Amino acid sequence: MAETLIERVWAWLHATFPERQIYIRSDGRVQFFTFSPTLQATLAGLSLIFLGWVAFASVNVIFKDRIIAAKDHRYQQMQSTYEDRLADIQVSYDELNGALVSAEDTFKATADKLEVKQRTVAGLLDRKNAVDQTLAGLRGSSASQRTSIDGILAAPASNTASDGISGQAPIGGDGSDLGGSSDIGAMPNTAQPQPRTANPTKASFLDEAVGRLAAALFPKKVRPPAAKILNQPAFRLLATQTARLQQMSHSETALLVAADHQVSGSIDEIEAVMRRVGVSPDRMEQEEESKVGGVGGPFIPISAMRIDGIADTAFTNAFAEASAHVKELDALFSAFRHIPLTTPVHGGEFELTSDFGPRIDPFTHRLGFHPGLDFGGPWGAVIHSTAPGVVDWAGWRGGYGNMVEIDHGFGIKTRYGHMSSILVKVGAKVQKGTPLGKLGSTGRSTGPHVHYEVWLGDVVRDPSRFIEAGRHVLK
Description:
alpha+beta; 10-stranded antiparallel sheet; 10 helices; Glucose Permease (Domain IIA); 16% strand
């Protein structure tokens, strides 16, 4: 196979460069030189190499500046590609850092808003618990009294009201403690990309080839989109916790609405008790508010109200409504405590000996009007105040004998007659349950008992209506 190839090459060489002879005649003599095919082929190869070198040298001299410019352009293109890569890396870092800071700020802002809401709700519920404890103490002190009242009033008068009132505890306080507000960080601005080298003008084929080579050596990586960045595990976890806090923040609004419903229900219940005993809730509330002095100021719509650190309109409206109702209940409950809702004596040894209304007078045996309730019991038993107030009479008063009269405010007064001795003086402030005197039979009396009256607006009222209402509200 190799011999055949050599033979073919040798045959091609002899066919292309056949043997040639050059004849030279000089001084009548003829000489010739013979050029073999091998020699001709060698001379032809040397000639081509020489011509190629001449051409390269000529091009190098003629196009020297262009070659240098091409090299500079290639260098600039490679430098531009490198700078673009650095700029893309910097932008990716800035975007990643900005997204992280933004997510952290969103989480912090949501947590701060939740904290402010919780403080706001806690302030409202703290006032609720304070009034609940006050009412619980009021009910606890009346626990033993109810047993005796049930025994004393086993057969209430026919005109005594007997409507049942539920024992929902009222909620007091104004709920104005908003706690401290929190600073919410501003969302960071997106990082601006760095300036990049301007694109060169349209290059020649050689420049384009160099550019493609540089792009192959330094490939440009595509930056991940923002959605891909935010899909990282750390960002997903932070977003999940932020959404959880936002859900908890919405539940605070529902809690306020529920508390407002409870407060509104307590207001309705207390007002029902007041109306049941013939007391005007509006009048008592106005008198309670008048104690603080003059009030006024420009009218500002509730829609203009803002809570520092909270931008949730639904929460703000719910808090405003609940706070207003709590203030109303606070004033109403303060007045409600001055209503006498129990008996002046307690225990199984006491009994109701005469009720309110028409009766046969024990002295004249004629039809008369009895303005109160008589509770018979052992001589010297302690008589207690049925509500807070100020003593405006303590002494002898005609048919009452030794009598104590207490002004409870809001036009309500109570009288305790026929005492054997008096334990308080005029002007003394008393609380519910304060000892006023001892049971006796002074004045117009047939035996040891206490005559108990309730006055409302200078009109004597049936005390059994108040006591019956107290049996339900203090249960």
